Amino acid sequence: MTGPRPPVVQNSGQVMGAGHEPANLGDILERVLDRGIVIAGDIRVSLLDIELLTLKLRLVIASVDTARQIGIDWWEHDPWLSSRARPPVEPGPRDPEEVEAERRPRVERVAARRDIDEYDR
Amino acid sequence: MSTTADVGPVATARPDTGAWLHGVVRELPPDTLAELVGMDGAEVRAVRSGGLVAVVSAAPLTEYGEEPLRRKLSDLTWLESAARTHHGVVAALSRTGAVVPARLATVHRDTDRVAAVLAERRAELTAALDRLTGRTEWGVKGYVVPGALPAEADDEPAGGGGAGAAYLRRRRAQLTAKEQGQRITAETAATVHEALAQYAVADRRHAPQDRRLSGAATAMVLNGAYLVDVAALDGFTELVRALAGRHPQVRLELTGPWPPYSFVAEAPAQEAHTVRDPASW
């Protein structure tokens, strides 16, 4: 053993020599955004924004290429991340439950405004 | 540069200063820095203080001040390249010896401030470097193997009540099978993690990656990080192989060696054992 080498174990314990292929972007992002020593820098963009960013990355991206292909640009519209936030023109890929949760109060508001409460019964 | 940077606005700093911290090491072999490429192609520099070396990229505040940095971080393309560049420097350092990696986007106004941080946290950094010497981080991820889960209840159950009731019964049976499968794979993940943790010097169990981030076809049930003595690596690899053979209901994937990203902070109390929403399965 001369030093660490990167084997990759897959399925039934089969070890594949992985060589020096570039590490998976998701793994890298997870490590550099979530971990590592926290030293308060002078430039305070980091914590809130980055934690939120990580969260969103976890939820949204499959890979950066895919993200680009499907036009993920939520940060442009996100009040947490962007001071020039504006409402999205059209919703990006979303968690269906979240979409539904957001839709429901809106539907109820509309219903109330139109005074058609009896429709629910 | 005096220490007015503490209170003064950005404009009081020279516009061409600023330092992006990659990590802290005890010493740097000659020529290490010359081979490294820093943030956005910048030069990589060493900042020495109290027997420690901070490795930084030149990061002009016109580019890495609060506003510009916020803008950059919001750009997924830049974020990807920044993550890879930062990781590239940290990984290169870890190949020369122990390194304490800094979290992404740790930016100081100038190298004097970096030196001050080295001095302030010298004891903590030195202890971390001692702990990490001769060890590397390995990741073991476990994924559900679909065939190993109990089959979903597809049969039409007997009983009246019409299509609606039948649907509800079917749905309940499916959910029960799903819960059972989740319980079995969760237990397997815990067993695998405990076995690896016993072998490793230190361990962390991180929250499983969302499938959209992992890119895997099935749900991740284990996202473990293990600090392993370099001398014990063969044994660790062998253990992963044995565990994979013993537990066919999870597919194990070993990645590494990683710089010890997971082992430089105090263990967050149980934070990693986040309970995942079953809906994400």
What's this entry about, in short?
The complex is a heterodimer of chains A (121) and B (281). By secondary structure, chain A is mainly α. Chain A has helices at 25-34, 46-60, 64-69, 96-114; strands at residues 7-10, 14-17.
Helix and strand arrangement:
The complex is a heterodimer of chains A (121) and B (281).
Chain A: E1 7-10, E2 14-17, H1 25-34, H2 46-60, H3 64-69, H4 96-114
Antiparallel strand pairs in A: 1-2
Chain B: E1 19-25, E2 44-49, E3 52-58, H1 61-64, H2 66-73, H3 76-96, E4 99-101, E5 107-108, H4 111-120, H5 122-132, E6 135-144, H6 162-199, E7 202-205, H7 211-214, E8 220-229, H8 233-246, E9 250-258
Antiparallel strand pairs in B: 1-3, 1-4, 1-5, 2-3, 6-8, 6-9, 7-8
Helix pairs in contact in B: 6-8
Structural notes for this entry:
The complex is a heterodimer of chains A (121) and B (281). Chain A contains 4 helices and 2 strands, in the order E-E-H-H-H-H. With 121 residues, chain A is mainly alpha-helical. Chain A has 2 domains: 36-90, no CATH class; 92-121, no CATH class. Chain A has a two-stranded antiparallel ribbon. Chain B contains 8 helices and 9 strands. Chain B is globular. Chain B is an alpha+beta fold and 281 residues long. The chains are: A mainly alpha (121), B alpha+beta (281). The interface between A and B is large, with 56 and 71 residues.
Defining traits:
heterodimer, A: 121 residues, mainly alpha, two-stranded antiparallel sheet, 4 helices, 2 strands, 41% helix, elongated, disordered N terminus, B: 281 residues, alpha+beta, Alpha-Beta Plaits, 2 domains, 8 helices, globular, disordered C terminus
Task: Give the total of beta strands of chain A.
Answer: 2
- What's the β-strand tally of chain B? 9
Number of helices of chain A: 4
Strand content of chain A: 5-15%
Termini Cα gap of chain A: 74 Å
Give the helix proportion of chain A (percent range). 40-55%
Q: Write down the overall mean pLDDT of chain A.
A: 51
Order of helices and strands of chain B: EEEHHHEEHHEHEHEHE
Number of domains of chain A: 2
Number of helices of chain B: 8
Largest interface, counted with CB-CB under 8 A? A-B, 56 and 71 residues
**Radius of gyration from the alpha-carbon trace of chain A, in angstroms:** 22 Å
User: What strand line-up does the widest sheet of chain A have?
Assistant: 1-2
Structural class of chain B: alpha+beta
Instruction: Compute the CA-based radius of gyration of chain B.
Output: 24 Å
End-to-end distance of chain B, in Å? 54 Å
The CATH topology of the largest domain in chain B comes to Alpha-Beta Plaits
Helix proportion of residues of chain B, in percent? 25-40%
Shape type of chain A: elongated
Organism (chain A): Micromonospora mirobrigensis
Biased composition (Basic and acidic residues) (chain A): 92-106
Subcellular location (chain A): Gas vesicle
Region (Disordered) (chain A): 81-106
